[in-house]
Each structure stands twice: as structure tokens, then as C-alpha cells.
Amino acid sequence: METDIAFINSAIYKSLFESIAEGFIIVNQRGVIVMANPRTCELFGYEIGNVIGLTVEDLLPDALRAHHTKLRTDFHHNPHKRSMGAGMNLQAKRKDNSTFFVEISLNHLEIEGQRFITALITDISDRVIKEEEIRNLNQNLEEKVKARTKEVRESQDLYSAIARNFPNGTINVFDKNLNYIFVDGQELFQLGVKSEKLIGTNYLARLSPEIQPKIEKALMSVFEGEIQDFELKFNDQHYRINAVPLAYEGNQVKQILVIEKNITTQIQFLEQKEAALVKERNLNEMKSRFVSMASHEFRTPLSTVLSSAALIEQYIERGQLEKTHKHTDRIKKSVHGLTEILNDFLSVDKLETQITPVKIQEFDYEHLAIDISEEMNTIAKTGQTIIRKIEGDCTMIESDPSIIKNILYNLLSNAIKYSDEGKTIYYTSWIEDEFLKVSVRDEGIGIPKEDQKQLFTRFFRAKNATNIKGTGLGLNIVLKYLEMLAGNMTFESEENKGTTFTIQIPIHHKI
């Protein structure tokens, strides 16, 4: 009976030894394998039984052999049950020199006074690969989370690190009542506000009543999962607001992150840039129109000068000097017309490039008024009369006499140009409420009502003035000159009855 039990036990041990999924070896004190199960041969790529006689170091990568010999010797002197490879990537070497990951459980036994070491070897390569895949997956997930939550941090310490040096604005975190949970940024420092004093207070309370509804509606929508990005103007300052959901509780947004950026400087820069582009386009347009207009307006007077000069030359050769006067007058008028055109363009160029300085001085306006009316009489049409009237004490004023002269010259020359021969031009001046007021009234063709709104546009010519020579710049120049002197101008006009322009200029100009 005992023999049968021993036989059965022996059969069971043999069956286990040969069928277990792990490799199993027994090593003597010299590290030589004295026993190995079939699974061991399969793991290491050897024929059945060919592992017997190899040393343990033969089953290790070359780089580990020397170090392992000492470990094996130490273990033989102090044997104990232990596991190798848990928590680490321990490698073994196959017969073909390829490697794989293993976990080894060590124990010892003594047979007839000799000590042997047993090792249970488990191939964990699949597990290591899966663990590596999981680590890579986790790393990828972490990178995606970081990318998606770049501006959204759960740590208040990290908020502070970012927000404290946030330029020209603030970083804010609000609860569902739009109370401050967190706030920081350079704008607070510039306003002399400490972030601690805002914590727990309501954001909307800091805003003006007129913009509160818009801001509240936008920010409350973020608690519904929306992302808001908009601009607003407050106290002459421009702000850009970015708001995103921040913290969730279940499916509900608990907090929102609001970035408030002061973009006033950028807006002003863009406005200045746009103004510069508009100015450049206007200058280019003016140059184009000048070329077009010059080719048209210069051709006739130059032709007149050329033909009159040729006729004068013939009359002189024939001794008919009395006939030359008519042509010298034509030359003078043509040259005067050309001079007017060039003066208009020179004036516009100086005004656009801001090289016309304002030179304030005290002068006698009455003398200037007399000089300008006498000068205008020399270019008046046949039978035209300029009636000059100065009401009250209109003598000494403080302004720029040169600019005032240019203004009056333009207004009076227009009155002459757009009035027929024999008509009267009324030039009246007076002082009222510390302003010099001047009225120039003509009995000319007038301005059609539908053209009056464009009257001060550069190069604009009313539809009833297309046959009268001119640049369309005079009134635009007058307006710019008046702006330089802090003055203004009004007008009244009726077609075929005449036009009245009235200007007013401070008599004590303040620079």
C-alpha cells in the first residue's frame, strides 16, 4: 500500500513537473543546471534535455553574467525564498541570443547534505509589452489633457504663477453667481487693486450698468458649456474677453475661467494704421486726379498762351501794336488761372504733410481786408463790383494773417468765378462774441441742393460748374485752414440766385 502511494505521488510530481506553464530548473552550488522541465527548454529555445549542464549565466544576456555570478554565490550562502523581476524588467537569453522578459521565484532544498537552488521561471514579455503600451497610452492621454487644458488649471497655485505676470489684463475664475474665486494680473497692479480684496465679491458690481446685461448673458452661457470670445469698450478702454468652462461637478459646470485683456493700445495702433492707409490712399487719389485734371485744365490756358504769343509776334512784325493788348490780357488771365490751380495743389500738399505752421501775431484786420479786396478787384470780371464793409471796431486781432488771407482769397475768388459779369460781391466783416465773422455773398449760379452735402469734398464740382475752370479744392482748403485757427464755416445757397459763406475765427487765438 505504501509503495502504491509513493508511486502515485511520484507520478503526480512528474506530471506537474512536465506540464506546468512555467519553466522550472534546479541548480547546484556551482550554478550548473542539474534538472529542467520541458517548458524551460521551450522558453529558451533548446531541445529537450539540452539545458542540463548549462550554467545559469548561459541563460542571461552577456552584460549581466559577471554581476549575476556574485549574486548567485551570495544566495547560496544565504538561501531564502524570494521573487526576482517583480517591478523590474529582468531579461533572459534564448539559444538564438534573442532576449525576453522574465520573473523568477527562487527557493532552496537540500538532498543528502547538498544544497540546491530551485527557480520557477515565468515569461512576462506580453505583460511587459502591454505595460509599456499602457504607459505610452497614459503618456499620450496626459499630453492631450495638457494641450486641451493649457489655459485651464485646477491648481490655484498654478493660476497665480500664470496670472500674476499676465500683461495688460487679468485672469479670473468665477462661480455660478459670478463671484470672484480667483483673480490676478498686471492690470490690477496698475489700478492699485489687490486681488485679495476682490475674492468673494461680484464681478458685475465693478461694471457700469449699461454693459452689465451683455456681460452677464455672455458669461452665464459659459456655464451651459459654451465658449465666449468678444470685445467691449468701457471708460474709453477696449477689452477682449475670453471665457471657457473650467470645473465640472457631474454634468454641471461649477466654475468658469475668464481672461480679460486690455487691447486699447492694439486698437489705437490699428486705428492709426488705418488712418495712415486712408491718408495714403487719399494722397494717391489726389495725385491721380491732379494728373487727370492737369491734362485737361492746363491744356486750354497753355494753348491760349501759345496762340496769343504767336499773334503778338505777328502784330509786332506788322507794327500793329494796338492789337497786342487783347492778347496780352488773354495771356495774363491764362497765367493767373494756372497759378490758381498750382496754388490750390501746393496748399493741399502743405496741409496734408502738415508743413504749414500757424504763426499767431497781433495785426490790423482792417488793413488786411482792404488789401485783399483791392487785390481781388484786379481779377474781377468786367462790370463786377466788390463791396467791402467793416462793421464796428474790427481792427486789432490775434491770429495768423497769412492763413486768414488765404481763406478770404479762396472765398472771394470763388465768388468772382461763379458770378457773371456785372454782378456784385458783398464782403462784410464784424466782431461778435470774441469772434471775427466774415460773410462773402455773391449773385452767382448758386449750388444745387442735391450737391450741397458734397461741397467740401476734395475735387468735387457741382453739376452746374463743370464748364467753369477750377480744381474743386478751394473750399476743402478753406475748411482745413479754419481748423488750424479753431474756426468754422457755414453757407446758404440757392441755384441761380447766389451763395453766402460765413466764417468765424477767434480774435484771441490760443496755441
Give a written overview of the molecule.
The chain has about 500 residues and is an alpha+beta fold. It has three domains: about 1-125, Beta-Lactamase (2-Layer Sandwich); about 155-260, PAS domain (Beta-Lactamase, 2-Layer Sandwich), CATH 3.30.450; about 355-505, Heat Shock Protein 90 (2-Layer Sandwich). The chain has helices spanning about 1-20, 40-45, 60-75, 125-150, 155-165, 185-190, 195-200, 210-220, 265-295, 300-320, 325-350, 365-375, 400-415, 475-485; strands spanning about 25, 35, 80-85, 90-95, 100-110, 115-125, 170-175, 180-185, 230-235, 235-250, 250-260, 360-365, 385-390, 395-400, 425-430, 435-440, 490-495, 500-505. The strands form four sheets. Strands 1, 2, 3, 4, 5 and 6 form a six-stranded antiparallel beta sheet that branches. Strand 4 (about 90-95) and strand 5 (about 100-110) form a beta hairpin.
Second rung of CATH, namely the architecture of the largest domain: 2-Layer Sandwich
Classified in CATH, the superfamily of the largest domain is: Histidine kinase-like ATPase, C-terminal domain
> From the helix content, strand content and strand pairing, which structural class follows?
alpha+beta
The number of helical elements comes to 14
Q: Give the overall pLDDT as a whole number.
A: 81
User: Could you give the distance between the termini?
Assistant: 131 Å
